[in-house]
Amino acid sequence: MWALLALGSAVFAALTTILAKIGVEGVKNSHVATAIRMAVALVMAFGMVSLTGNWDGLNGISQKGWLFLILSGLATGASWLCYYKALQMGDVSKVVPIDKLSVVITLILAFLLFHETATLKVVAGAVLITIGTLLMVL
User: Fold this and answer.
1) What pLDDT is stored for residue 67 in this prediction?
2) pLDDT tens by residue, 114-130
């Protein structure tokens, strides 16, 4: 099931980029576009919590959980602000590969912070993603 959800995430992320590129055309300030996207995402997320009746889940979040969820939200906001500005200024075919270097950066952080195993297969994949990104951008 997790693989199907991950695939769904990839499909929706791809649609997000295409829709965003169209949406930022003619927008004077990309931050306005980002704010609209974030507001819609916020309404959708809380709508799902309401729809599923999971408001009691708030009680189970520790102080550490709150801190890191807030920091994650700030990182998401910063990422989206950069992404929308980059989409507004550049070609999708250049912006997206660079953005997807987040996979490689995430793996490096997972190895360093969570001591996940850096298998040959995972390292080779990360190297290939990096090479692919360079080929697409240069």
Assistant:
1) 96
2) 999 999 999 999 999 99
Selection from 105, 91, 88 nearest residue 136 by Cα: 91
Pull the structure tokens for residue 39.
Answer: 């507001």
Which structure tokens are listed for 78? 């910063």
Q: What is the pLDDT of residues 20-52, one digit of tens each?
A: 999 999 899 999 999 999 999 999 999 999 999
Cα(107)–Cα(105) distance, rounded to whole angstroms?
5
The three-point CA angle 96-82-92 to 5° equals: 25
| Six-digit token string for 14 | 């791809």
Q: What is the rounded CA–CA span in Å between residue 5 and residue 7?
A: 5
Q: Distance between CA 26 and CA 72 in Å, rounded?
A: 30
Is the separation of the CB atoms in 130 and 111 below 8 Å?
no
Q: What's the rounded Cα separation, in Å, for the pair 39 and 32?
A: 11
CA angle (72 as vertex; 69, 77 as ends), nearest 5: 130
